[in-house]
Recover the amino acids of this structure.
């Protein structure tokens, strides 16, 4: 734990992986489950590698399910949910905006800030998907893309709510 607290994540990862092997050998399932969570947290929060964190969260969840540990299962599901990641192709498919345009909007307007793998592959989380969908809504409602990308959450929500209300009033 000390290396994690000191932000020496590589050493912390080594420590936790060794601990997981030992806990597995002595069949300490509850401890093994917790150690897998720590490994996932180091990958996710310390090393910013959410894709590497997910297998450890899933291992922990499997143990928790076997033990019927519902309290810890809830925390693990939350860790997994927070790690939902989308590729640029998936983002494109969900938003209807081409991957090419998403990249341009990132560069020109700082629309999204994807995390990247060591191979420089972009990944987006739920908040970034929501932001892109809001930008898309604003763009399709007639806003210039530069203005749509510059709006904060409150401005976007206010405008989209007004648009919804005016559409409902017309019907």
């Amino acid at each position: 734990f000390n290396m994690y607290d000191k932000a020496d994540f590589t050493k912390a990862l080594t420590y936790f992986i060794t601990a997981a092997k030992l806990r597995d050998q002595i069949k300490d399932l509850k401890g093994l489950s917790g150690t897998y969570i720590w490994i996932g947290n180091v990958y996710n929060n310390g090393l910013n590698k959410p894709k590497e964190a997910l297998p450890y969260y899933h291992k922990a969840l499997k143990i928790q399910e076997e033990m019927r540990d519902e309290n810890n299962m809830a925390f693990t599901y939350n860790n997994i949910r927070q790690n939902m990641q989308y590729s640029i192709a998936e983002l494109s498919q969900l938003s209807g905006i081409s991957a090419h345009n998403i990249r341009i909007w990132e560069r020109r307007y700082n629309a999204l800030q994807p995390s990247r793998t060591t191979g420089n592959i972009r990944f987006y989380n739920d908040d970034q998907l929501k932001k892109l969908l809001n930008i898309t809504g604003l763009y399709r409602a007639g806003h210039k893309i530069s203005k749509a990308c510059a709006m904060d959450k409150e401005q976007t929500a206010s405008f989209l709510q007004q648009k919804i209300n005016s559409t409902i009033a017309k019907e």
